[in-house]
Predict the 3D structure of the following.
Amino acid sequence: MTDTPKTSLLTVDARTRKRNAAEKRFKAYGIVAIAIGLLFLVVLLTSILRSGLPAFTTTVVALEATITQEDVDAAEGQLLKTAAYEALLVAKVNEFLVERGSTIEVDEDFITDRLVPKTGATIREFYKENPDQIGQTVTFDLPASTRISRYFEGDLLREDVTDSRFLEVADLDVVDVMIDAGLITTAFDWNFITGTDTAVDNPGGAGIGASVIGSFFMMIVVLLLALPIGVAASIYLEEFAPKNRLTDLIEVNISNLAAVPSIVFGILGLAVFIQFAHLPQSAPLVGGLVLTLMTLPTIIISTRASLKSVPPSIRDAALGVGASKMQAVFHHVLPLAMPGILTGTIIGLAQALGETAPLLLIGMVGYVAREYPDGIISGFVDSNSAMPAQIYTWAARADTGFYEKAWGGIIVLLVFLLTMNLIAILLRRRFERRW
Amino acid sequence: MSFIKTAASTLAITAVTATAAAARDNVQVAGSSTVLPYASIVAEAFGDNTDFPTPVVESGGSSAGLARFCEGIGENTIDIANASRGIRAGEIEECAANGVTDIIEVRIGYDGIVFASQIDGPDFSAFTPSDIFNALAPQVMVDGELVDNPHTQWSDFNADLPAADILAFIPGTKHGTREVFEEKVIAVGCEETGAHDAMIAAGMSEDDAEDACLAVRTDGLSVDIDGDYTETLASIDANPNAVGVFGLAFYENNTDTLKVATMSGVEPTTETIAAGDYPVSRPLYFYIKGAHIGVIPGLKEYAQFFMADELAGPDGPLAQYGLVSDPELAATQAMIEAEEAM
């Protein structure tokens, strides 16, 4: 008889203690890892929100103007009509200053360069659309320059101001009078969400709207191409294709394609779609084609996974009652796999939506998203940017006003991505069947 | 399945009409990122002030822009290439091989940078490229030896300069002016002090030595400014001993707080830059495809608008953003009017 030491489940021996301690340690590591991850997330989100939220508000100066037909004619006769319209605001501002008992008199440069630069286009547009307002007194709500809005919000202190072409110390006296009279207010900047890109000296007027439209048209192209091609390819590979060397090779290559860096697709797009096929530069159509190449493997892989997850009994039952192979697939397997396919597609689209690298190569950075497309075809083929490319462009510009816009653009992009992911989750929750 | 069918056919139709719809009505510009800001200012004003659509201005660099310019003629090619250097003979040949002749060269103006310091600060009144190199390079020549930069005061290497601590605010690497600063100051200083030859003697290849020449010290005495010149000005305000790099126009607007130093004995003014005497400057260009004039609506008008006195003149928005206006503007305007090719 061998001598086995007596043990009891009730007494904890050294080995058990060691094993329990190891488990505890592992749990602690896990919690620490999660805590670090959460900490990074919190830091990231707060810094995005802190830097980006100011992009959504704007400082508005309410300025009155009485512009006569002669003024309009004179301004239209100039080469820089917009600056001429801005200069027309001077008279009323000086009247206002006299009314408020101020002895300061401002000149045209104060209005056109320092208070509300680059707003002439708005005024000109207004009179073009409302010719009956010529000669009447109209109040314009115009966005203030970056520095005056920083002064108004308390980010720029009077003692830090030195005379420059952007702002002179004496201007602040006028601004103070305007603030007292309630002419300067903060408003939600709809233009940031709906507007177009602006020139480098006009950060206040820049908006992400045009590039949202560009992204939208690209996503349409991706959806219309990648979904049918991807689903057809996966159904064939999964349900019909014979298992041989060739299909194995194709399978391996699809998995490899999913891991190819996106910039590679950009170079491919430049060479094939623009230089060879002569499709238009910077067009959402080309962007969409490039992103389709990038998204296809993702869609194929997720579609095949969801087809695989449909139990074979469904197929067997369909075939058993006399359905053809194709009927079994399209009437029974595909509908059951649909939630998974849609989820995969939306995730693929979300990935494509945030992709910048391939777009750099097909001409979507610079001053590109400067007009809205006029119509559906124009939306596909006319030059436009996309959200991530626009953010990249803004971040590279020297004026700090654009840096803020870039952060604001990130928030808009994140909202779109979160919405898409939410839709994917809802679809999965609602329609997915578990076996 | 009918949805997918409709969708696929819609897309096919769109793709076919794409070629037809590309009868483009806007001007397309690409090229130098130094010229991009000026071009975007003009493009926006052109769209706001005329009935033509706003031109597209892409960045990507002078060489890439000219390469695309020379790809050929037709609506799928760009109309204008922006460049921060003159077109090279090889590029003209490449252009001609693809049928791009009748190139109109337009000199927009000059990009000039100056070295300025606080008006009440130490007496920084004359620099040479060697001085800047000795102050800012990571490795400099001391007694004929290439050593890690030991200088902490300007007087350490040039007795004519004040005994003040070295601190320089230079344009960050994403600025176009950084390139001028590197090419016309640091690289020249590197050659003049003999550091370039010493690097080659130490076994570096020609290319490596040229790259090494452009480096700046990273011990905090040289600070990159990524924002605009206002940020540089704020830094100069806070540091009496500091020297900053500014655009000429910016300095001229701030002469009450800044004083400028001469470079190799030449004072930076609009005249010396335009005459080519002041070394730290370069002309900026754009090139128009003559064959596209009259085909692409607004192309000639854009060029005329760009070079109008109201925009490219000394009081225009381009000069405000830092361009040194070309004194021969009238000649350029006449040249565009006559569509004179190179």
Q: What stands out?
A: The first helix of chain B runs from residue 2 to 21.
